[in-house]
Amino acid sequence: MDSTYIENAASQLLPVNRFGLQSTIGITFGIETKDTSGNMITFSFQKRTNITGKFSDDAFRLGFQGNTQFKGEEAQFSGTRFSALSWTQLKIGYVSKESENTNISVAFSGIIGNNYNEGIIHYGKLFTDSQGLFLDGSVAADYYSSDTANQSLFAVNGFGTSVDIGWNYRRQLKKSSEYYRIEFMDFGFINWNSKTIHQYTDTTFQYSGIDISQIFINQNYVLDLPEANDFIKQDTGETRRSTFLPAVIRGTYQRNSADYKLFVKITGALPIWSYALPYASIVGGYKIDVAKLQAITGIAYGGYARLQVPFKLQTWVIQNATVEVGTSNVLSCILPDKFYGSGVFVKLNYWF
């Protein structure tokens, strides 16, 4: 990132800013029960990663631009937090058809915690003298990390469990159909083992710099540069720790045309144990049967960004399969200097 990009990004910051990244790689399949009830057992194996955090505008400027611009001022970075989790998940679910138009799904997961890092700055400030003669600072923070000697992709550093619950309802109208869905996803936790590292900092310091004039006066003068540990005191130990998974409560309404070529979907989501904001979207899609292609776009707000325009293309040119490619915010591709939140995804569905 060059200085121009950083300055443009800084000019768009709010007092509290959020970031996040999610990735899921896995395979899911279902088996219908032998009777005619329409019930199904599902199995899923996934490797998942979630990175989430929040920070002040001062914290961004300190990290990427230094403290020069804060001469005579106090930079505040209290409340800066981040969490990075990766885990492997085996999920077993059951879909029960309660009536012709209603079904309920429940899934339980066994989880292996692979890697974990979390930083929490409870209190932080840095004052820079107007003449640049000294710095005054205070910080109270916790940092956690799973076993640093076991950081492989599928490391076993903890165990946990989670549950997913979903309710679906379909109503057939004269010239269209409606779908309602409510879901509670990833309500669970991971217990990290006793080799989890905990570093705690609670200190106040003043740094007055180095008098470099001694170098010119005495050629044998040894310049003794301070280390961070000289004025920021830390306590380090090992501990057990439990963390919640980033869960979500989501509601969806969808209406399809009679020929299923056109649809409109409204979604609202409430993230829990995550730094993402509540999310809302309205999207529509149109299916072109001749080209075996469906285009979907709309408008959204929340999550880790403000205004977003999602866009997705789905094709079923391969027999018994669909391929989806898209972005959560096409505006960031068109106007990268004004819109920064974006996600790109590729999804393949195949059924036997």
Strand content: over 45%
What's the total helix number?
4
Q: Report the sheet with the most strands, covering strand number, pairing sense and barrel closure.
A: 17 strands, antiparallel
Q: For the terminal residues, how far apart are their CA atoms?
A: 46 Å
Low-confidence stretches: none
Radius of gyration, in Å, reads 26 Å
3D shape:
elongated
Overall helicity: under 10%
Mean pLDDT: 88
Give the H and E element order.
HEEHEEEEEEHEEEEEEEEHE
Domain unit count:
2
Fold and architecture overview:
The chain is mainly beta and about 350 residues long. The chain has two domains: about 240 residues, no CATH class; about 80 residues, no CATH class. It has a 17-stranded antiparallel β-sheet that branches. It starts with a helix and ends with a strand.
Which features characterize this protein?
352 residues; mainly beta; 17-stranded antiparallel sheet; 4 helices; elongated
